[in-house]
Structure formats: structure tokens, C-alpha cells
Write a structure and sequence with these properties.
It is built from 4 helices and 21 strands. The chain is mostly beta strands. Among the domains are: 93 residues, no CATH class; 110 residues, no CATH class. Helix 2 packs across helix 3.
């Protein structure tokens, strides 16, 4: 539920208060299976995870990780590691023995896998998140053309469950079954204003954001061959952003611009996987971004309206992830373009060229399954656009 109200403290001061109450549960149903043991026969549901069994909260878990009699054994939360180990050894000594020899194979049951079974008997039923977040804004409007404000607000993302929950990696790390919410506190001071007889509009803000228990996704084959998520770190973000529209004292000329400057930092590492480093910046958080567009229009003797519009967009370097083994560095870039055309009452025709310098700008990147994948900007592109407005 969400509610908000505003109250005028005076002709110039307005206080706005809001709150949101939430109660969220996330569950898993179904299974993740493989072709091992199945062939063309009935699906034996082996070499995978029965998610409906794992996340039912009943304190029981059926081990399905082998084709032999070692699979299909149900364990309970009151059984110790030694008891589970002995049961599997008695049911399938061959697979158990290969695991004890350090062999990595589908039919080798290691101590890490046994510990994962013990962990699975203690898995929760659902991931729960409930609470209340608030927002308060004090706005001051000294004139009809200016407004200044300060905002304190909270945000969150609900927790979730991991498919490979309970899997054990190096140094005793176990993939968490349930993630907690990550929470953000935002302090913002900004303005919305017009100047020079409304020929200049300038909006902007300074902000500080404190993030606790930041959720992130990790792919680390030394722990699990599946992605999993964890509350990886605490972080801080400081920045300034703004946008402006200016109508200079030249008929037909309009200038649009926007910018942002960010300073982000991981202040505390929570996950014990050594995949996150204190002091690193957050993902997709370039130090600066900016865009400028200038449009000039003028009337032709034929009654048509002509226009010319150059634009420039730029971005600083950034990283694709906070997980050091999964991230790539994306270089800074600058791209420009130009549009020129004519228009009448019911049609427009224009020539355009985008990415004039043919910059190979890296717009996005990821490292899914240890393979870097980069999304590049569209290469230099030029052409003719024609639009016709019917029934105008």
C-alpha cells in the first residue's frame, strides 16, 4: 500500500510526506534436470535439483544426483554430515569412493556435495520481505519561476531464492538459499527553475545514496556451475545531474543539454567469495555522461521551414559488474551526429548521419558463462527520412 499527502506550510513552503508498506514472498516451483540417466526411458529426474522439494521448508530433501542406488535417498535435518556420508557410502560405494579420491565426474560424490545435501535439508520455504519505507520532501518556491527542494527517501529490492542454494565452494562458502532485501537511503537537493524571461530552463540536483546489502549475481565455477545471487556489499553514490533548455536571442535557435557526474564506491564487502573488492566503483556507473543538441530553424521563401541540428553524446569509462571475475571494462566514448531537412504543414524530409566518427562505443557488456559479450553502438549510419501526416 502507498499513500502520500502534501501540505502548504506557507505560500512558499510545501511539505510532502509518503510511505509504502510491503509484504512479499518469493517461492520456487519445478525442477532443473539433465539428460544423464534418462536416455530414451522415463525421466528419472537425476543430475539436477528438484526445486519444489528443495524449497518446501519441511526439513527433508531427496538426493537425486546419481544414476545408481545412491540417488533417490531422502535425508532429514536431524542427520549430521557423518550420517549422510555413511548412508551414501553404503548405497553407492563406487561413486562415494571416486569422490573421496578427488575425481570430478557425474558419478563422483564429493564431500562438498554431501555438505550441500545437509544444507538442503535446512532450506527455507520462501524468501520473505516486509516493512515500510518513507519519503519526505520540503519544497521552497520563492517565485513562480523557481522551486528548490530537499528530499529524503528510501528504496529497496525484495529478496529472492537461489537455484543452487546450499552448494559449497572453497573455504567452506555455501551459496545462500535466501537473499535479503537490499536497501537504499537517498538524500537529494535540487532545483527546477526558469530564467531570462523563461528563455532558459535549468533543472538539476545533488544527491547522496547509501546502499546496504547490495544484491548482485555471481558466476563462479569454483562454487557452482549456475549463476547465484548474494548480498555482496555496501556502497555509496555521490553525484550531480542536470538538464537545460535555452532559447538564445536568435530566432529559431534552441539548445538542449543534459549531464551527470557520479562518484560511486564499494565501502564494505559482505560476500566471502573474494569476488568483490572494497573501493571499486559500481557497475554501469561512468564518472560522467553528457549530451548537447543544437537546433536551428528558419523560413524559406517557398514557405517551407528548414532545420539543421548537430548533436554530441559522450560517456566516461565504466565496468560491467562489481564481481571481478565476471566484469569487463568499457572505454569512454564520444559520438556525434547531424540532421538537416525541410518541412511543410503535412510532411517532413530530412537527411541524417549518426555516429559521424564511426566510434565503436561499448554501450553494454556482460561475462555470461566466462564469455565476454559486448553491445556496440550502431556504426556510422546515414540516410533520408520522409514523414507524411494524414488528416492534419
Amino acid at each position: 500500500m502507498f499513500a502520500a499527502f502534501s501540505y502548504d506550510l506557507s505560500e512558499q513552503l510545501t511539505l510532502t510526506l509518503g510511505a509504502r508498506w510491503y509484504d512479499i514472498e518469493v517461492d520456487f516451483e519445478g525442477g532443473a534436470n539433465a539428460q544423464f540417466c534418462n536416455g530414451f526411458s522415463e525421466d528419472l529426474n537425476r543430475f539436477g535439483t528438484n526445486l519444489s522439494d528443495l524449497y518446501d521448508g519441511d526439513g527433508r530433501f531427496t538426493f537425486i544426483g546419481d544414476c545408481t542406488s545412491g540417488g533417490g535417498i531422502t535425508f532429514t535435518s536431524d542427520q549430521s554430515f557423518e550420517q549422510v556420508s555413511a548412508t551414501i557410502a553404503a548405497a553407492d560405494g563406487y561413486s562415494y569412493g571416486r569422490g573421496q579420491q578427488g575425481i570430478t565426474a557425474p558419478n563422483a560424490i564429493s564431500d562438498a556435495e554431501i555438505q550441500g545435501i545437509v544444507n538442503a535439508t535446512r532450506a527455507p520455504d520462501v524468501a520473505k520481505a516486509d516493512g515500510t519505507i518513507g519519503k519526505a520532501t520540503l519544497a521552497w518556491s520563492p517565485t513562480n519561476d523557481q522551486m528548490y527542494y530537499v528530499t529524503l527517501s528510501e528504496g529497496f529490492r525484495p529478496g529472492l531464492l537461489n537455484r543452487p542454494g546450499g552448494a559449497v565452494g572453497p573455504n567452506g562458502f555455501a551459496v545462500p538459499f535466501e537473499l535479503q532485501t537490499d536497501e537504499m537511503t537517498n538524500v537529494e537537493v535540487g532545483w527546477k527553475s526558469s530564467y531570462l524571461d523563461n528563455t532558459l530552463r535549468f533543472n538539476g540536483s545533488f544527491f547522496f545514496q547509501d546502499i546496504e546489502s547490495l544484491q548482485t549475481t555471481i558466476f563462479d565455477p569454483s562454487i557452482s556451475n549456475l549463476f547465484f545471487s548474494d548480498n555482496a556489499a555496501d556502497a555509496e553514490v555521490r553525484g550531480i545531474e542536470g538538464d537545460l533548455v535555452w532559447l538564445p536571442d536568435v530566432d529559431g535557435l534552441t539548445v538542449n543539454a543534459a549531464f551527470s557526474f557520479l562518484d560511486s564506491e564499494i565501502t564494505r564487502v559482505l560476500t566471502p567469495t573474494n569476488d568483490v573488492r572494497k573501493g571499486d566503483e559500481l557497475a554501469f556507473a561512468p564518472d560522467y555522461q553528457a549530451t548537447v543538441r543544437i537546433r536551428y530553424e528558419w523560413e524559406l521563401k517557398s514557405g517551407l521551414t528548414a532545420h539543421l541540428m548537430p548533436h554530441v553524446v559522450m560517456s566516461g569509462e565504466s565496468f560491467s559488474d562489481i564481481i571481478t571475475i565476471n566484469r569487463t571494462k568499457m572505454d569512454s566514448w564520444v559520438m556525434g551526429g547531424l540532421t538537416a531537412g525541410v518541412s511543410a504543414a503535412d510532411w517532413t524530409a530530412e537527411l541524417f548521419i549518426d555516429n559521424i566518427s564511426d566510434e565503436r562505443a561499448e554501450l553494454s557488456s556482460n561475462f555470461v558463462f566466462d564469455r565476454e559479450r559486448v553491445t556496440y553502438s550502431q556504426p556510422r549510419t546515414y540516410g533520408l527520412r520522409v514523414a507524411y501526416h494524414f488528416n492534419r
